[in-house]
Structure formats: structure tokens, C-alpha cells
Design goal:
The protein contains 13 helices and twelve strands. The chain is an alpha/beta fold. The protein has an eight-stranded parallel beta barrel with strand order 1-2-3-4-5-8-9-12, surrounded by four helices. The two termini are 33 Å apart. GO terms for molecular function: myo-inosose-2 dehydratase activity.
Length: 305
């Protein structure tokens, strides 16, 4: 019997003994199981893109497998302003809560953020902010850049990020940008991600550092985090082996031992596992979870900001 069933059955037994309304006690038990389950979990989340092939076939069953592995929270992807795989963020959040997990963020975005951004793009962001707020989430993350060709293009994107960040902040949310390896290329001799970091307001825009992509981009991760302390609120836990490609956690060149020793000083608050390939995807997720769970930082009470 799982913990949730044990709590629920215990409350129903008490209700029967005292002739009390069992439906009321059942609701109380369910709520306690949700809260207790999340608060006693870890800091390890998962980007749902990791199981994107499975979710359309069995949405609840796939999420339950993640809960059984032990993930505390999830990050959605591809939110179009209305739904995520046919469900609102609020509906998705309720499903996750019933499993003892929380929806904390989603990858989203209109795509290109054109130079003359149209009213519909701003309407998209306002609608997305409202949807995440209703779902009880914390953050919205833009996971791509336009096809930047000039320094002016890049600085314009930074300007737009500040504006989206202000919309989020006014509603109690945070806005961030997620890197891939391409953002470590240069324009006019400057690393693209450096330009974004230097031209965005730390009070409006955070960054989600994908560790595997950073290694693929040729970055000294420790040096980069030290150069921009407190800017990388969130990490995507992935791994990359130079000369071979992306791999399971602990089999690549991301220096996890050293990163977790310094995680507090770097200012990271949110850890999200992502693995995009492999036939035995849930087994990979379990092995990656177990790898992260060995570090004491991940065992701390979940205090996502």
C-alpha cells in the first residue's frame, strides 16, 4: 500500500469509528497526502520533454511513473498559450498534485520575438502568465532564440526579454531563458549568452543553464557560474561526453561533484533533469534520478523561489 492510500484509509477508519462524514475526512486526507508528500520530497524535477513520446498515449500513467521514481516537481514544454497536450496548466497542475508532485515551470514562447513585435505576441505572454499563475507555478522559460545574425538582433532580444520579465514580475512570476550549445557561439567576438546576460535586468530575467549543452558549447561551467553569480536560478541536469555526444548523468564531462559543492554559492534554487533520447526512457530517468539523489544538496527541503 502506498503512502497516500495508507493516509486515506486511516482517516476513513477514524470517521467510521465516530460516525463522521467519510467524504469530508477523505478530502482532508487527500490534501494532507499532497502537502506532506511534496514537502518531504527532494529538489529534483524533470523536464517533461524527456518523455514526450509517452505523454500523448498515456498522460496520467506516464506522470505517475515519474512520481513513483521520486521526482518532486515538473517543467512542462510547448505551452501554446491555451493548453499543454490538450490540458490547461491548471488541469495539469491538479493531476500532478494528486500524485504528490508540483508544476513549477513551463518552456514556452512565441518563437521569434520580431523586431517590431506585434500585439498578439504580448497578448500571448499575458495569457501565458495568467495561465501559470492560476496553476500555482513559479516560472516561464523561453528555450530558444531567433536566428540572430547581428549584435543589434541579439541586444533587441535582450530588450524583449526584459519586457516579458516585467510582465511576469508584475504577476508574481519569474521569466527566464534556457540555453542550448549555440548560445556559446560568438557574434562580433562576444559570446552570445554573455551579451544576453549583460543586457538583461537581473531583477527581471533569470537564466536556466543546461549543463550538458554548456559542455557541448565548450564552456568552463564552474568559471561561467562564478562569472555570473546568482543569475542562473535554475539548472537543467544533462550530460555530454566530448567526442561522443549526449549521455546519461555521470557518464559525461559535466563536473557534478564540484558543481553541487558550490551550488549554494552559485545561487541555484531549481534542478531539472532532462534526457531526450533512448529506448528505455523511464529506466534512464530512474538512473538519472538516482545519480542526482546521491548529492546532499538535492535532499534539502524543496524551497523553490
Amino acid at each position: 500500500m502506498d503512502r497516500r492510500s495508507f493516509i486515506n484509509k486511516g482517516f476513513l477508519a477514524v470517521a467510521a469509528c465516530y460516525g463522521l462524514n467519510s467524504s469530508v475526512f477523505s478530502a482532508i486526507a487527500a490534501n494532507m497526502a499532497n502537502v506532506e508528500g511534496f514537502m518531504n520530497k527532494n529538489r529534483i524535477g524533470i523536464q517533461l520533454y524527456s518523455i514526450r513520446e509517452y505523454l500523448p498515449k498515456d498522460f496520467k500513467g506516464s506522470l505517475q511513473k515519474l512520481a513513483d521514481i521520486g521526482f518532486a516537481h515538473v517543467e512542462a514544454y510547448g505551452f501554446d498559450g491555451d493548453t499543454f497536450l490538450g490540458k490547461t496548466l491548471k488541469e495539469t497542475s491538479a493531476i500532478l498534485n494528486d500524485m504528490g508532485m508540483k508544476l513549477t515551470s513551463t518552456h514556452c514562447g512565441t518563437g521569434l520575438l520580431p523586431a517590431d513585435i506585434q500585439a498578439k505576441e504580448w497578448a500571448y505572454w499575458r495569457k501565458t502568465v495568467q495561465a501559470m499563475k492560476e496553476a500555482g507555478g513559479k516560472r516561464l522559460v523561453q528555450p530558444w532564440l531567433p536566428a540572430e545574425k547581428t549584435m543589434d538582433d541579439l541586444k533587441h532580444s535582450a530588450e524583449q526579454f526584459n519586457k516579458v520579465g516585467e510582465i511576469c514580475k508584475n504577476s508574481g512570476l519569474k521569466f527566464g531563458f534556457h540555453n542550448h550549445f549555440g548560445e556559446f557561439k560568438t557574434i562580433d567576438g562576444q559570446v552570445m549568452l554573455d551579451v544576453l546576460l549583460q543586457n538583461t535586468d537581473p531583477g527581471l530575467v533569470f537564466f536556466q543553464l543546461d549543463l550538458g549543452h554548456a559542455v557541448n558549447g565548450g564552456v568552463d561551467i564552474r568559471g561561467y557560474l562564478s562569472k555570473y553569480p546568482k543569475r542562473f536560478l535554475s539548472w537543467h541536469a544533462s550530460d555530454f561526453k566530448r567526442g561522443q555526444g549526449y549521455t546519461e548523468l555521470g557518464h559525461g564531462d559535466v563536473p557534478y561533484d564540484e558543481l553541487f559543492k558550490l551550488a549554494k554559492s552559485y545561487g541555484v534554487a531549481d534542478l531539472i533533469m532532462e534526457h531526450e533520447s533512448g529506448e528505455d526512457r523511464f529506466d534512464i530517468c530512474k538512473r538519472n534520478f538516482d545519480f542526482l539523489a546521491q548529492y546532499s544538496w538535492t535532499k534539502a527541503k524543496n524551497n523553490l523561489k
